[in-house]
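Our preliminary data section would be incomplete without showing what the modeling component actually yields. Below, a chain of 362 amino acids is followed by its predicted structure, encoded as tokens that our downstream tools consume directly.
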Amino acid sequence: MCIVHKSQMLRMVACVAAAGAGFAALAAKPAVAVTASLKDGSSVKGDFLTKKITGSTLFDKGLALAPSLVRSINFTGTNGESKVELFNGDRFAMTVSNDAFAVRSMLGDLKIPRASLRSLILASRSAAAKGGSAGGLVFHCTFDGREEVAKPKAGPHGIFMAGEFAEGVDGSALHVPPYTSAARFELKPGTIGRKGTIEFWGKIDEGMARLATGGCPRFFEIISYEPRDEISQDWNSNNGTGGAGLTFRIGGLPVMASSSYGRFMGYDFIKGNLYGWHHYALAWDADGITLSNGRTATAAVFIDGKPVMTTSAANWDGPPLANHRSYLFFPSREDEMPSYARVGYAIDEFKIWNYAKTDFQQ
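Predicted structure:
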């Protein structure tokens, strides 16, 4: 989901030049969609009209890439230095030479200066038309109603068990009372890979928050029974490994926890607005991800777009459940219920991507 405030958009428009009629003729039927994130915090979506992405690398001083091959470009310097990822998983450093990029948006045809960009996320329309996952989105449930659980925007059909639908950040959200099994999805092998991202909006029930054992709340769990492996999130006072506060688990990596057992101090990133909506994300890549501060990690947790926890491990080849059938539960697997999940919550816009996202423009 992308929200661009009017003041931000005005600043953005000031730094882009509207193109003429010749500019619009670059692509009569654009094959690639784009989300352009700017350094001032703005973002804009539209059709990508630039025909070639050009620049130099260690292996090719005059590289020209078709946009349909490119998944993302993250600009790391002021002179075109960037990290490029292709849809086949190739990743490399590139000094981009394009001075600007052409985007057809709701504002009209724009030419966005390279120097104003933080990142470009591209998605081939042909892949989407063939039933593929545009932009690497492999699962997306909006939680706008029972029918959206039964047949989400992307990914397998689900089973709705209990809960109510209330106002969310975009349309409706699923409210899950305490001790309640709400929804279940069966994920086919390959849905989770050696790189990926899980992101969602979560809201803790007002007046109910208290750190105890047993999910306070747990927003979700993905579990495979063969092999026994999971990816999950918890708020609790003791996660079983000496951690507390906000906890994220991903198989094969050290558990990430925002605080230590008995301290409950490490979650300043949320307690100022404990009962508001917050954006949660878990990103991982067996080859490593680079954060905005230049640090690298194997996996990272983001709250409201900011990295708050990381973990790393050598020789990790991705979650063990990656090539096996797994199950996505809200909030937790059924053999733990109803004793688990002691605090209610609302959840909205749950997405799984097949690459590691580090830029979350809300």
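The CA atoms of residues 228 and 321 lie 8 Å apart. The first helix runs from residue 6 to 14. Preliminary results of this kind motivate Aim 1 of the renewal.
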